[in-house]
Amino acid sequence: MVRLLNCIVAVSQNMGIGKNGDLPWPPLRNEFRYFQRMTTTSSVEGKQNLVIMGRKTWFSIPEKNRPLKDRINLVLSRELKEPPQGAHFLARSLDDALKLTERPELANKVDMIW
């Protein structure tokens, strides 16, 4: 089954996505709400969206906000041996993550992949 992979990213004016494990700008509430709405809203009743993120992104999220609520959280890492606390799944590469979404335990639960 071929799945559409959605991408959502915020960048600074010089195309930066992070600085020293944090965002290179002050909190942008409207953009955060947009990210939350886009990655949480499923078009299929009974399914959730899956959010794929790197290890550094996972650990940059305040612990009180992990895992991202109402989404299946998958972390990419070649270093970790098991999913970090709170994450639902771990994969070594994007290719491995997408293969994981084809397995029955995820294929029937996932609507969109972000």
From TrEMBL:
GO MF annotation terms: dihydrofolate reductase activity; NADP binding
UniProt-listed Enzyme Commission number(s): 1.5.1.3
GO biological-process terms attached to the record: dihydrofolate metabolic process; folic acid metabolic process; one-carbon metabolic process; response to methotrexate; tetrahydrofolate biosynthetic process
Keyword NADP: yes
Sequence ranges assigned to domain DHFR in this UniProt record: 4-114
Enzyme class, UniProt record, top EC level: oxidoreductase
Family as reported in the entry's similarity comment: Belongs to the dihydrofolate reductase family.
Record InterPro entries: DHFR (IPR012259), DHFR-like_dom_sf (IPR024072), DHFR_CS (IPR017925), DHFR_dom (IPR001796)
PANTHER family membership: DIHYDROFOLATE REDUCTASE, DIHYDROFOLATE REDUCTASE 2, MITOCHONDRIAL
Keyword Repeat: no
Alphabetical UniProt keywords: Methotrexate resistance, NADP, One-carbon metabolism, Oxidoreductase
Pfam families: DHFR_1
Any one of the GO CC terms: mitochondrion
Origin species: Pongo abelii
Domain of life: Eukaryota
This protein's name: Dihydrofolate reductase
Reaction equation(s) it catalyzes: (6S)-5,6,7,8-tetrahydrofolate + NADP(+) = 7,8-dihydrofolate + NADPH + H(+)
